[in-house]
């Protein structure tokens, strides 16, 4: 008998647990007390649709207490089933309503489903954010490098959050504007004397077009002088010109050496031919003697002429100084 009573008690307890899980009675009471009209059947159907009733009811209570009357339960359920953050969207709508920011429910859910934090965007619209740019290197027309760092104050543009570019695009555009502004300056001294001219020029270009932000101000936080890029480039160019000139001179020297070697080879060849021709002279003279074309007196006359020529050459040579 006692075992039967225990089994019945356990079964009743399990049935109560299942009932209150599928029919969250206390949550329904909380909603009714807060002024949110919803039936127990709707809470039961939420369980069947795998939508947590506490998430939807708490969001509806928050919206009702904040005076947002156009938020419906079906819309919240649809946003949850689409993978959105219901609580974050309702927080953003309440904050936007208190700050007099026009943020419809459809836009808030679209921003949330796009992967952006809509609540953070509303906060940034109320309290602008300051973004520090990395150090931007640029060169003025006089060749001096300047290292600039800026602070960009931005405010979220609610209407451009869906499809608008992020912070990286803003920083890239600001850096490009700083480089262009410094590069168009005649001297780095003018930039150091008046750094706000950079921010004015960059701000006038409308760099926030197509982004999810509205640029409020661009302030140059620091400007440092870097290297003399112009002098370095001239030095590198002079070194390159020197190397080219040396290469051309070496080429001409090599060609001269080759020409000299060729001339020496030709001279040696000519001398060889002369020696060969001189070697044939005695043979020719012997042949002339045998054929009777050359007499002995003719031979002596030729020898006298050779001796006389040799003597004249020796007399014509300058005297060698004695040591």
Write a concise synopsis of the structure shown.
With about 325 residues, the protein is of the alpha+beta class.
List key phrases describing it.
four-stranded antiparallel beta sheet, 323 residues
Topology:
Elements: H1 2-22, H2 25-34, H3 40-48, H4 53-65, H5 73-81, H6 86-98, H7 105-113, H8 118-126, E1 129-132, E2 136-139, E3 144-156, H9 167-183, H10 188-193, H11 196-203, E4 213-228, H12 229-291, H13 296-316
Antiparallel strand pairs: 1-3, 2-3, 3-4
Helix pairs in contact: 2-4, 4-6, 6-7, 6-8, 9-11
Number of strands: 4
Count of helical segments? 13
The average pLDDT score comes to 82
Strand content is 5-15%
- Poorly predicted regions: none
Largest sheet: 4 strands, antiparallel
Write down the overall geometry: elongated
> Helix/strand/pairing class, anyone?
alpha+beta
Work out the radius of gyration. 52 Å
First-to-last CA distance: 152 Å
N-to-C SSE string, H for helix and E for strand: HHHHHHHHEEEHHHEHH
